[in-house]
C-alpha cells in the first residue's frame, strides 16, 4: 500500500512554515489563473471600475488558492511520490488535515465574499462552479482517468469567463472565445507536461495522457490543441472585441506553437526536451495573452 513518505522527503522542509503555506496555494497556478481573470475584465469592461477590478483580482486569487489547498490535501499521497511535488507541506505531513481544512475554508469564504460584494453575482457563481470542478471533480478524477485533463480544463478556462462576467455589459462572444482559447491553450500546456513529467506520473501511478495513450498520440493532441488555439484567436477577432493588432499577435503566438508542435511529431526528436520547449512556450503565450487583453481596449479608442 502507498505511504506518504514513499519516494518523497517526508522529513525535509521546503523552508519556513510560512513558505509551506505559500507553497500550498500553488503560487504559480494561482497567480497565472488570476491574471487571466483580471486581464479579461480589463478587456471586457466598459466602463472600467477600479473597485470591481481589485475585487475580482483579490476574490479570484483567494478562491483559486482555496481550491489548490484542497487539491494538495487530497493529492498528498501521490504528491509524496513525485519529485516535483514531494516537498509540499501536505505531502510531507507538515500541514495536516485540520490545518488544510481551516486554511482552505478561510481562503474560500473570504474570496467568495469579496467576489459577491465587489463584482457581480455571475462572476461569483462562476468562481464557485470553478472551485467545485477543480477541488472536487478534477481532483477525484485525476487518480482514475486520463480524461481528468479535460475535466480540469474547464475550471482552468473559467477565470477569464468570470472576468468578462464582472463587466457591466458582458459580451457573450468574448466569454466564449476566451473560454475556447484557454481550453486549447491548456491542451497544449498539460499534454506537453504529461510527456515531460511522465516518469514522475508513472511513479505515482497517475494515468496522464502520455502514459495512457502513449507519447506519439499525445504529441498529436498537442498539435490539435495548437490548431484550436489559432481558430479561437481568430474567433476572438471575428466575433469578439479583439481588434486586428490583438488578433494578429495571438495568431502569431498560435503559429509559433503550431510550428513547435509540428516539429515534435518527427520520430527523431527527443520527446522530453521537445515537451519542455512546448511547456515553456505555453508560459510565454499566457503572458502575451494577458498583455494583449490588457492593451486590447487601446485599439478601440
Ligand atoms: C488542465 C489544466 C491544467 C493542468 C492539468 C496543469 C498542470 C500543471 C502542472 C503539472 C504544472 C507543473 C509543470 C512542471 O513543472 O513540469 C503546471 C505549471 C504551470 N501551470 Fe498549469 N495546468 C493546467 C492549467 C493551467 C492554467 C489554466 C494556467 C494559467 C492560466 C496554468 C499555469 C501554469 C503555470 C504558470 C505553471 C508554471 C508555474 C508552476 O509550476 O506553478 N496552468 N501546470
Ligand atoms: C476560480 C477557480 C477555483 C479556478 C480554478 C483554476 C485552476 C486552479 C486551474 C488549474 C487547473 C489544473 C487542473 C491544474 C493542475 O492541477 P494538478 O493537481 O494536476 O497540479 P499539481 O500536480 O501541481 O498538483
UniProtKB/TrEMBL annotation:
Pathway: Porphyrin-containing compound metabolism; heme O biosynthesis; heme O from protoheme: step 1/1. Keywords: Cell membrane, Heme biosynthesis, Membrane, Transferase, Transmembrane, Transmembrane helix. It is an enzyme of class 2 (transferase). InterPro entries: Protohaem_IX_farnesylTrfase, UbiA_prenyltransferase, UbiA_prenylTrfase_CS, UbiA_sf. Gene3D superfamilies: UbiA prenyltransferase. Its main location: membrane. Coiled coil: none annotated. It catalyses: heme b + (2E,6E)-farnesyl diphosphate + H2O = Fe(II)-heme o + diphosphate. Its EC number is 2.5.1.141. GO terms for biological process: heme O biosynthetic process. The chain crosses the membrane at residues 20-44, 50-74, 95-116, 122-141, 148-169, 175-193, 221-239, 245-262, 274-295. PROSITE patterns: UBIA. One of its GO terms (molecular function) is protoheme IX farnesyltransferase activity. It comes from the Bacteria. Carbon 2 of the heme B porphyrin ring is defined according to the Fischer nomenclature. Converts heme B (protoheme IX) to heme O by substitution of the vinyl group on carbon 2 of heme B porphyrin ring with a hydroxyethyl farnesyl side group. This is Protoheme IX farnesyltransferase.
Amino acid at each position: 500500500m502507498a505511504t506518504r513518505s514513499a519516494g518523497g522527503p517526508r522529513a525535509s522542509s521546503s523552508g519556513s512554515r510560512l513558505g509551506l503555506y505559500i507553497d500550498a496555494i500553488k503560487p504559480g497556478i494561482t497567480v497565472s489563473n488570476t491574471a487571466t481573470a483580471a486581464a479579461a475584465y480589463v478587456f471586457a469592461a466598459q466602463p472600467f471600475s477600479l473597485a470591481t477590478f481589485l475585487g475580482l483580482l483579490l476574490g479570484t486569487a483567494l478562491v483559486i488558492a482555496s481550491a489548490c489547498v484542497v487539491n494538495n490535501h487530497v493529492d498528498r499521497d501521490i504528491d509524496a511520490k513525485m519529485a516535483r511535488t514531494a516537498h509540499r507541506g501536505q505531502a510531507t505531513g507538515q500541514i495536516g488535515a485540520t490545518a488544510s481544512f481551516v486554511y482552505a475554508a478561510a481562503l474560500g469564504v473570504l474570496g467568495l465574499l469579496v467576489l459577491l460584494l465587489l463584482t457581480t453575482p455571475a462572476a461569483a457563481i462562476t468562481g464557485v462552479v470553478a472551485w467545485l470542478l477543480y477541488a472536487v471533480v478534477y481532483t477525484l478524477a485525476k487518480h482514475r482517468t486520463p480524461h481528468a485533463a479535460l475535466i480540469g480544463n474547464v475550471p482552468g478556462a473559467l477565470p477569464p469567463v468570470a472576468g468578462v462576467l464582472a463587466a457591466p455589459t458582458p459580451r457573450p462572444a468574448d466569454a466564449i472565445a476566451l473560454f475556447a482559447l484557454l481550453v486549447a491553450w491548456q491542451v497544449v500546456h498539460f499534454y506537453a507536461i504529461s510527456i515531460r513529467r511522465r516518469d514522475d506520473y508513472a511513479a505515482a501511478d497517475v494515468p496522464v495522457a502520455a502514459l495512457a495513450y502513449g507519447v506519439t498520440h499525445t504529441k498529436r493532441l498537442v498539435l490539435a490543441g495548437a490548431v484550436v488555439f489559432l481558430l479561437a484567436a481568430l474567433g476572438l477577432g471575428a466575433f469578439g472585441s479583439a481588434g486586428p493588432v490583438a488578433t494578429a499577435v495571438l495568431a502569431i503566438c498560435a503559429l509559433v506553437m503550431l510550428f513547435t508542435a509540428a516539429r515534435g511529431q518527427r520520430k527523431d526528436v527527443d520527446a522530453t526536451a521537445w515537451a519542455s520547449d512546448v511547456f515553456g512556450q505555453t508560459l510565454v503565450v499566457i503572458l502575451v495573452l494577458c498583455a494583449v487583453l490588457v492593451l486590447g481596449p487601446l485599439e478601440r479608442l
